[in-house]
Amino acid sequence: MYFWLSLTFAIGFALIHYCSKYMGFLKETPRSKFLSISAGIAVAYVFVHLLPELNHYQELLNDELEHHIWSYTENHIYILALIGLILFYGLERLVKVSKQTTKLHNPDETKSGIFWIHMSSFFLYNSIIGYLLVREEYESPFGMLFYFIALGVHFVTNDRSLRSDHKHIYDKYGRLLLTGAILLGWIVGVMTELNELIISLLTAFIAGGIILNVMKEELPEERQSSIVSFLLGAAGYTTLLLLI
């Protein structure tokens, strides 16, 4: 269902990553208002759409694990979302520590090993998003459109952050890998259908990652973020979600 629409949006995601290096108008400091609006949209998507969806998935998981040892543990889906957040936080700390080491010839760049670890995590992240573009259950084409809007602007923010961390090596290798990850995830989604339980786990992981990646970009004081732009993005996108 919505095959051609999902293909269009997958290509759109890929183009966002591929063309990210040319978006020089998006300044880090003072932070571009567009980036703050993007962060507001992504946060609204998580809290107004994804978290209620995770509640549905938790009920599904409870039924699946009714006679399993894990049935004695509650809130499995939310624990996985927390794991996603912790994983991406750990990777960010790894990058920061790498940049601070005095052994680097260029203190503005990270070690190549750290770069590939970082890219591997975002490759998985983007692949899941590409997969869910096909396999997520959308009630209407507008549902897929809002998914594309929320994650598309989120990708812009992620690209700026990754380029800031890794400089030219990200433009040379990273953006191409992440571009390919989206398309690979979409292709896997077209060819393979996982059961709803697996999709619920993937969605939870992505929710945690989005929350961490947005907050780490907006909260640091040195970013000089625009709270008004952030609120406009969050309020505007929430209104659209509520209308459909």
A few lines on this structure:
The chain is 77% helix and 0% strand.
Give structural notes.
The structure is a single chain. The chain has 244 residues and is mainly α. It has one domain. It has helices spanning 3-18, 33-64, 76-100, 112-135, 141-166, 168-191, 196-218, 227-243. Helix 1 runs parallel beside helix 5 (141-166), helix 3 crosses helix 7 (196-218) and helix 4 (112-135) packs across helix 7.
Rg, alpha carbons: 18 Å
Q: Write the element-wise H/E pattern from the N-terminal end onward.
A: HHHHHHHH
Tally of structural domains: 1
Helix and strand composition category: mainly alpha
| Overall number of strands | 0
Q: Kindly state the mean pLDDT as a whole number?
A: 80
- Uncertain parts: none
In whole angstroms, how far apart are the ends? 19 Å
Q: What overall form do the CA principal axes indicate?
A: globular
The number of helical elements comes to: 8
What is the helix content? over 70%
Task: Bin the strand percentage.
Answer: under 5%
Main sheet, how many strands, which sense, barrel?
none
